[in-house]
Amino acid sequence: MSESKSGRHITFFNARLTSTISISLVLFILGIIVLMGILATRLSMYVKENMGFSIVLKEDVKESQVKKLQKKLDIAPYVRATQYISKEDALKELEVELGENPKDLLGFNPLQASIEVKLRSDYAHPDSLTWIEKGLRKGTVAIDDIVYQKDLIQLVNDNIRRISFMLLGLAVVLMLISFALISNTIRLGAYSKRFIIHTMKLVGATPAFIRKPFIISNIINGIIGAFIAMALLSGCVYYLLTEFDNLYTLIDISSLFWVFVIVLLLGVVLTAISAWFAVNRYIRMDRDNLYYV
């Protein structure tokens, strides 16, 4: 008798362990997709916020006009940062790039002073830049020209939009696959207890009363699986950060915290919904059909 009980206990433990591991692996994959989505969002913001335009100033512009223009730009909602580059600084930069001083060849400095403007990510697209350019040309006499790479900005925005749609589609597909995998895992557990469910119906138990222990048990499995998935994700993130130092600008504690929160919520929600459907199937089933499913 004791050997029989011990065997049943081991079988139950193995089944629950298998279920928990399966759920944790599915949640790990979903966590990777969430992390990729956050990384893609941070990367797109980083790229956009390093885009901008140059305001080329007139030769006879006064220092007071330059300061007034830069102050106006600094408080503009579309500006992240500005940097004034004098004629001398521009000449030094060009000398570094060319390897020789253009002033020695021409006899004068051919460059003009400018203000480099870095945009906020929400304004880093051609339509906004066209609107910004019109407003600046209309209200400022110190500007000689406004230079930006419209085709490059359009290309970056198109690529970011394309990648976002691809990630969204992949996330939806994986979510459906994950729900199916978790449902199958939980359905196997409910299948092994289908006669117990039928017995509970015979003694007058309500569907809600029958579902409750199954849902609670699987939610606990989902929470355990979520913590296992978090541990695996932490290991992956640690490895990436040690291999690629630049990722520190994209992955921080707050982003990783939100990934963990989403994984935990998915673990609870997916297991609860799957358990509800799995148990309902056997609650509605007649006794004779229980032998043939």
Structural summary, described in words:
By secondary structure, the protein is α+β, with helices and mostly antiparallel strands. It is built from ten helices and four strands, in the order H-E-H-E-H-H-E-H-E-H-H-H-H-H. The protein has helices at about 1-50, 65-75, 85-100, 100-105, 125-140, 150-190, 195-200, 205-245, 255-285, 285-290, and strands at about 50-55, 80-85, 115-120, 145. The chain has a four-stranded antiparallel beta sheet with strand order 2-3-1-4. The radius of gyration is 31 Å and the shape is elongated.
Oligomer: single chain
Helix and strand sequence: HEHEHHEHEHHHHH
Strand order, largest beta sheet: 2-3-1-4
Structural class designation = alpha+beta
Shape descriptor: elongated
Structure summary, number of beta strands = 4
The rounded distance between the terminal residues' Cα atoms is 30 Å
Q: How many DSSP helices?
A: 10
* Average residue pLDDT: 80
Strand content: 5-15%
Q: Rounded to an integer, what's the Rg over CA atoms?
A: 31 Å
Major sheet summary line: 4 strands, antiparallel
The poorly predicted ranges are 1-10
Q: What percentage of residues falls in helices of 4 or more residues? A: over 70%
Short description, anyone?
Helices cover 73% and strands 8% of the residues. It has 293 residues and is α+β, with helices and mostly antiparallel strands.
